[in-house]
């Protein structure tokens, strides 16, 4: 049954979630045509191709709307953000043997139509079309914006940080990483982070990938911060339960601080451990390691921008309240061991976010703050993929070294984490990220108390 999804001219973004009246969700991709020499009904005259597939990964239900899309063997392949299962967006075929449902798309006329199978006598229609936004909410224009905008931006005030500094085309990944880490202004940091991920990804598909520059530049001991009141973690004022505007602002501000540090942590892992080699096999980290963590950093930049924007919409702003640096304390504690860094940052701190995020979201929902709920749900879904990334690379290292990732994780918690890992645990989200109960369900998982 062909379903009209709307005017072709209205589809301008890279992907959309198509909601049907049956409750079924699909993802519609709008991608540059690979081979325009033989036009098909899913391709437009101006160089765009449209594909539709089920919105949930058939492996574990991961959100394909958040998938990474690459070109392999002259075809588009979408990789699930949870476990990196890859699917051809036209055929649904995967390299791992399972198959996703795909649906024919016709854009030969003025409308976007997709063919959805129904049983005899059944009916289905379009309920809603939702664009999927991947954009970071920047406060000012990029250098590539129009000359008029750039000229106006040049007349800065004393409080205006001006434009972010971009490196030359011959800069290595480690050059960029050090530059981002040493950038104190948060708006510049998120702009440079998303730019770095974009250019690294684009060059990976070209004949001139970005040089890694392993070991050529050192990261800072601690990334600088700009105009923030820093206190010890124990001295932070209580945020409350979200029942008042003041409480919700405090909660959003605390989360924004975490996301800003999360950017630095994902960038730092790329430069600090660039020369890492596995024990026994002397295996270097593959380029996909750096791509994965740059994707995490780009997500964290998006998260910070969402929270900063929401704070401003509520009449506040980032920097209006005290912050703490406890995440970087963990980074310092694990600065000399990649296994420890992944274990503590990704599989303890970030995994804890999976446990508490639903409760935080519910507080904002009860307060009627739908806009904050929307931002927090985006963040939560992304965080599952970040824990997945940590689990994937700890597992990879352990496979190379012939060790058990669960035991390596537990050993590092004992050495490097302050206090016990406390529940309640979001077992479903943790399992989606690859962490079964062996990682955390044991009273002896408590780490030693380490003085700050």
TrEMBL record:
Ribosomal protein is among the record's keywords: no
InterPro entries, A to Z: DUF455 (IPR007402), Ferritin-like_SF (IPR009078), Rieske_2Fe-2S (IPR017941), Rieske_2Fe-2S_sf (IPR036922)
Record key words, sorted: 2Fe-2S, Iron, Iron-sulfur, Metal-binding
Keyword match Metal-binding: yes
GO molecular function: 2 iron, 2 sulfur cluster binding; metal ion binding
Domain of life (superkingdom): Eukaryota
Domain Rieske, first and last residues per copy: 49-114
Pfam families from the UniProt entry: DUF455, Rieske
PANTHER family xrefs: 3-OXOACYL-[ACYL-CARRIER-PROTEIN] SYNTHASE-LIKE PROTEIN, SI:CH73-314G15.3
Protein name (database record): Rieske domain-containing protein
């Amino acid at each position: 049954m062909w379903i009209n999804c709307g005017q072709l001219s209205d589809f301008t973004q890279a992907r959309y979630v198509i909601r049907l009246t049956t409750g079924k969700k699909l993802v519609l991709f709008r991608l540059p045509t690979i081979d325009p020499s033989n036009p098909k009904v899913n391709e437009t005259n101006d160089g765009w191709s449209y594909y539709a597939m089920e919105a949930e990964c058939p492996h574990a239900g991961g959100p394909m709307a958040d998938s990474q899309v690459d070109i392999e063997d002259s075809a588009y392949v979408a990789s699930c953000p949870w476990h990196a299962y890859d699917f051809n967006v036209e055929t649904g075929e995967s390299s791992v043997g399972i198959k996703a449902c795909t649906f024919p798309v016709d854009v030969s006329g003025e409308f976007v139509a997709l063919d959805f199978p129904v049983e005899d006598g059944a009916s289905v229609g379009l309920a809603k079309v939702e664009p999927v936004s991947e954009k970071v909410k920047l406060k000012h224009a990029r250098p590539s914006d129009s000359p008029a905008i750039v000229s106006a931006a040049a007349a800065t005030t004393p409080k205006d940080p001006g434009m972010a500094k971009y490196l030359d085309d011959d800069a290595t990944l480690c050059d960029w990483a050090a530059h981002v880490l040493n950038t104190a202004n948060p708006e510049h940091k998120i702009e440079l982070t998303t730019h770095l991920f974009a250019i690294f990804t684009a060059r990976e598909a070209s004949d001139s990938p970005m040089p890694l520059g392993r070991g050529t530049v050192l990261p800072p001991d601690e990334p600088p911060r700009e105009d923030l009141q820093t206190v010890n973690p124990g001295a932070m004022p209580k945020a409350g339960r979200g029942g008042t505007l003041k409480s919700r602002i405090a909660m959003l501000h605390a989360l924004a601080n975490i996301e800003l540090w999360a950017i630095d942590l994902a960038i730092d892992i790329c430069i600090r451990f660039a020369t890492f080699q596995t024990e026994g096999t002397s295996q270097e980290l593959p380029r996909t390691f750096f791509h994965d963590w740059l994707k995490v950093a780009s997500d964290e930049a998006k998260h910070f921008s969402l929270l900063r924007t929401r704070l401003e919409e509520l009449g506040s702003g980032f920097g209006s309240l005290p912050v703490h640096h406890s995440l970087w304390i963990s980074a310092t504690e694990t600065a000399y061991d990649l296994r420890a860094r992944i274990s503590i940052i990704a599989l303890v701190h970030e995994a804890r976010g999976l446990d508490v995020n639903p409760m935080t979201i519910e507080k904002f929902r009860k307060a009627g703050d739908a806009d904050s709920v929307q931002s927090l749900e985006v963040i939560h879904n992304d965080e599952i993929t970040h824990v997945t990334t940590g689990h994937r690379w700890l597992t990879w290292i352990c496979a190379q070294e012939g060790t058990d990732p669960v035991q390596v994780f537990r050993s590092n918690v004992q050495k490097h984490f302050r206090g016990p890992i406390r529940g309640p645990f979001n077992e479903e989200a943790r399992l989606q990220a690859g962490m079964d109960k062996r990682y955390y369900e044991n009273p002896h998982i408590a780490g030693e108390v380490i003085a700050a």
